[in-house]
Amino acid sequence: MINTLIKNIQEKNAPIVVGLDPMMNYIPTHIKESAFKEYGETLKGAGEAIWTYNKGIIDATYDLIPAVKPQIAMYEQFGIEGLIAFHKTCEYAKEKGLVVIGDIKRGDIGSTSEAYAVGHIGKVQVGSQTYQGFPEDFVTVNPYLGTDGIKPFVDVCKKENKGIFVLVKTSNPSSGEFQDQMVDGRPLYELVAEKVVEWGSECMGDTYSNVGCVVGATYPEMGKVLRKLMPKTYILVPGYGAQGGQGKDLVHYFNEDGLGAIVNSSRGIIAAYKQDKYARFGEASYADASRQAVVDMLDDINGAIGRK
Amino acid sequence: MINTLIKNIQEKNAPIVVGLDPMMNYIPTHIKESAFKEYGETLKGAGEAIWTYNKGIIDATYDLIPAVKPQIAMYEQFGIEGLIAFHKTCEYAKEKGLVVIGDIKRGDIGSTSEAYAVGHIGKVQVGSQTYQGFPEDFVTVNPYLGTDGIKPFVDVCKKENKGIFVLVKTSNPSSGEFQDQMVDGRPLYELVAEKVVEWGSECMGDTYSNVGCVVGATYPEMGKVLRKLMPKTYILVPGYGAQGGQGKDLVHYFNEDGLGAIVNSSRGIIAAYKQDKYARFGEASYADASRQAVVDMLDDINGAIGRK
User: Fold this and answer.
1) Which of A145, A194, B97, B287 is most buried, by CB atoms within 10 Å?
2) C-alpha to C-alpha distance for B117 and B68, rounded to whole angstroms
3) Per DSSP, which regions of chain B are E strands?
4) Which residues contact A222 (CB under 8 A, 6 or more apart)?
5) Which of A83, A82, A168, A174 is nearest to B178 (CA)?
């Protein structure tokens, strides 16, 4: 699956991913009103509003981008109806030729991780039949439980040609509390990075591994070190835009081949119409504002990495 | 919510929790056949079989136990239909007076953790209405992202009188890979434990905190140390039974008040009928076998901690 992601990135000259993390206050009023008129102010109404909102953004941006990254928490908070919207969003993005990175940050003991892997990037057995629970191409995974919590995901990646991104150094302010703790003179996240390389070595694509990692845009110095430590590991980079990261900070997340990193922006793209910069589009044309924000993000990042 | 859990434990003299982690191969043939006859070998059929199976176990054991711990991965692997079975199971357990510990091991950056917290132990806003996405009383939480990934859960606990169990030292074989790494002469899991105490101090029940932790039964020496480090933290103990832990290993997970720990068994209870020891019950009476396994587990643990 990493081969497909790289092909998409190269064809569109776009090392970016749009984070579909809908919050109710991002969704334009006309979409909410229409959904609530049909289903009431219910969980189903919320799910419908989210789905309509996402579809607008996908329709307006899919020709420019290689992938989307729906954050499942934003759907899960609305229970079953939210997860139906998540499922529909993933399916629709795939119909549009996009790679779907499910930002699920799952991770558990072996048999449980296996169930998550099967449910999100594999197939589950029901009697003599098999089904996809959820239809992602990649998922994000939490490494705190160690190898036996990760291996079941890697096994499913091998079997189904899918991929994962393992959390190494996250973008949030307190990520250092445990991740930066020094172990034998080196931060814990470097130990995690070494394991990522080991796990990834058994699941290689043509040039990069199907086992990628997550390193936040907000820690560029660490990103630089980690890039060298994991030359064949694709880095999913959250924290661009609303969280503070900029294109110039991200140069060292890329390899000399111009590949090796894919930068996520969520709020900065999907709620662009709320920024002064894009206010001219107006709420009704929120999706056009998102498209312009994608164009600007590509300018910023491709400019910084000399890819234009 | 910790007060309610403790009250349940004391009334039933049962410091245990039954892990509702259904696997298709645990479910008796007659239940699967009946579900597949109605819905086919579909995800809906699987969800129906899981729900019927769980209901049987709850009906046969609820008077003996304080709580159940459904592992969401085992439901999530069947997609939306599996999660409907999860939701029904949680609701039904609550109707029977049980505390529901959702084993979800979520954890993310702040705004995302907030969505998980709202979705599982809080209430989500839709227009002028509020709803519960999923109806758990406690959830398990992964600490790898640090304080700002945990605080949103604690805030919801305070607001809604709910609780969490933070992973400190997990029961699986490779849990030591990162959790045991030495930081300034102390294992990382002790640093996490100290943070758990800090987070928990703002969310106290009468004698214990609503912020508990997870320490596996498979590491009794570490459990002993952690017990002393966190005197007011309830410990959720996985790894009993099928994973190898026994009552005698668990003595030091409890405080002198006979409280402070709740021991989980999943497979050992819900698939008891598959063990030689309970084969006499037969597949059709799987729930009676589960009841007997609960009785035996209580004997073992209450015996070991001198609580009989």
Assistant:
1) A145
2) 19
3) 16-18, 67-68, 99-106, 124-126, 129-131, 138-141, 163-169, 182-183, 186-187, 211-215, 235-237, 261-265
4) A169, A187, A189, A215
5) A168
- Residues on chain B touching A87 (C-beta within 8 angstroms): 79-80
- C-alpha–C-alpha distance, residues B115 and B165, integer Å: 17
Q: Does A34 touch chain B (CB under 8 A)?
A: no
List, for residues B245-268, the tens digit of each pLDDT value: 788 889 999 999 999 999 999 999
**Band of residue B308 on the pLDDT scale cut at 50, 70, 90:** very low
Angstroms from B139 CA to nearest CA on chain A: 14
User: What pTM does this model have?
Assistant: 0.97
Question: Which of B306, B304, B298 minimizes the C-alpha distance to B9?
Answer: B298
Binary contact (B181, A191; C-beta < 8 A): yes
Query: Which chain B residues are Cβ-neighbours of A214 within 8 angstroms?
Result: none
| Chain B interface test: which of A25, A80, A145, A165 (most B C-beta within 10 Å) | A145
Element (H, E) at A103: strand A99-106
Q: Which of A12, A55, A94, A105 is catalytic?
A: A105
Q: Residue type for B211, please?
A: V
The verdict on a CB contact (< 8 Å) between B74 and A115 is yes
Q: How far is A127 from chain B (nearest CA, A)?
A: 6
- A45 and B CB contact within 8 Å: yes
Give the Cα separation of A179 and A215 in Å (integer). Answer: 11
Among A193, A102, A190, A199, which residue's Cα sits nearest to residue A149? A199
Backbone φ and ψ of B165, nearest 5°: -125, 115
Q: Which of B36, B119, B149 sits opposite A127 (nearest CB)?
A: B36
Q: Which two tokens stand for residue B114?
A: 């907030």
The single-letter DSSP state of residue A185 is T
pLDDT surpassing 80 at residue B189: yes
The ipTM, to two decimals, is 0.97
- DSSP 3-state assignment of B60? helix
Tell me the per-residue pLDDT of A6-65, one tens digit each, with 9 for 90 and over.
999 999 999 999 999 999 999 999 999 999 999 999 999 999 999 999 999 999 999 999
pLDDT digits (tens, 9 = 90+) for A96-129: 999 999 999 999 999 999 999 999 999 999 999 9
Compute the nearest-CA separation of A308 from chain B (Å).
Answer: 32
| pLDDT tens digits along A156-183 | 999 999 999 999 999 999 999 999 999 9
Pairing of β A129-131 and β A124-126: antiparallel
Rounded (5°) CA angle B197-A174-A75: 95
Judge whether A295 is closer than 8 Å to chain B, CB to CB.
no
The one-letter amino acid at A8: N
Distances (CA, A) of B257 to A102, A222, B132, B217, B223: 45, 47, 35, 20, 17
Report yes or no: B187 at the A interface, CB cutoff 8 Å: no
What gap in Å lies between CA A298 and CA A11, rounded to an integer?
A: 14
